[in-house]
Amino acid sequence: MKIKVVKNILDANDQMAIENKRLFDEAGIITINIMASPGAGKTSLILKTIDLTGLPIAVVEGDIASTLDAEKVGAKNVPVVQINTGGACHLDAAMIRKAIKGLSLKNVRILFIENVGNLVCPASFELGERARVVVASVPEGDDKPYKYPGMFSAATAVVLNKIDTLPVIDFDLERFRKGVLAVNAGAPIFEVSCKTGEGLSSWITWLKKLVS
Amino acid sequence: MHELAITQSLVEIALTTAENRRVKGITIVVGELSGVVEDSVRFCFDAVSANTMVSGAVLTFRTVPAYIRCTQCTFEFRLDDSNWACPQCGNLGGHVMQGRECYIESLEVEDGNEDQSS
Questions:
Q1: Do B34 and B101 form a contact (C-beta atoms < 8 A)?
Q2: Which helix (H) or strand (E) element contains residue B9?
Q3: A112 has pLDDT over 50
Q4: Residue B29, SS3?
């Protein structure tokens, strides 16, 4: 006997994400899911943003193992909680729900969720975020938007980090921009260096607009 | 690797929907841009479904091709070999019209009158 189902396979996660989003909306918190490959500069961008915005920020750190990133963020005296996925390649909505129970979100305006470093799997899992920011970096190469269209096409904004290395790395900026534009015509691209601070002001302006 | 989580959800939905009947087959629809790899789901399925009413079910995958609508001339075209340039006007940039699907379309379940006494 055939039963028609037509149900999204990730329906349970999607439902939980909707519930998370409702909680964040009620608390007046803008949640931003930061996704990138390992080492692109997700944590650096969060640390710089904490310094530059002056807005109350909290952070959920997602990693397979260790509390290294949470320690760096904690040193800035912002509420932070570390999720160790123990091998799982992405965060899901249930992990977020559990993690925020241990986080003081009173008066927080922005909650950054730093996803597990990976340009594939995190794109499939809604967390209840308002915006998805994909961080790419110059040393990774200019072909990333072409190779990972699923990730880049779902981004609200794209940050290209480590532009201070452009003089020494073969990276075709125009090719990168075209690649993002191809898969995602609506996403702004912020070209920054978290090391030198270059380009960060337009990122901060965009972020503040998102929050206002 | 995220196919493990996807396969777990797949098995859960099938078990809930089948309501204690043995599941003989599952038809899954995946878009070309969904990022779901058929072989990985098959690989995870045996382990995840073991000792459940879904174990041994035949998995059928229906792939949905990715179609893009050009943001400039609104022409719709099949995404071919990751080439996002519009074949009509050459513009780079489009909206994904289909190709992100990832859902269970149907289940084939045992009728239940032959081997279910309770």
A1: yes
A2: helix B2-18
A3: yes
A4: strand
Report residue A129 as tokens.
């975020």
Residues of chain B in contact with residue A120, where contact means CB-CB under 8 angstroms, are 2, 35
CA-based nearest residue to A108, from A28, A23, A207: A28
Burial of A157 (0-12, 13-18, 19+ CB in 10 A): buried
Query: Could you tell me where the DSSP H helices lie in A77-143?
Result: 93-100
Q: Is A185 on the interface with B (CB under 8 A)?
A: yes
Backbone angles phi, psi at A11, to 5 degrees: -55, -45
Q: Tell me what the pLDDT averaged over chain A comes to.
A: 95
Taking Cα atoms as reference points, which of B69, B60, B62, B61 lies closest to residue B98?
B69
Compute the nearest-CA separation of B5 from chain A (Å): 9
- Residue B118: pLDDT band (50, 70, 90) is very low
- Nearest-Cα distance to chain B for A147, in Å, is 8
- The rounded distance, in Å, linking the Cα atoms of A22 and B8 is 26
A125 and B CB contact within 8 Å? yes
End-to-end CA distance of chain A, in Å? 54
DSSP character for A160? E
- Residue B20, classified by CB atoms within 10 Å of its CB into exposed (0-12), middle (13-18) or buried (19+), is exposed
Minimum Cα–Cα distance from B110: chain A residue: A1
pLDDT in tens, A142-160: 999 999 988 999 899 999 9
Report the complex ipTM.
0.79
Please tell me the pTM assigned to this model. 0.89
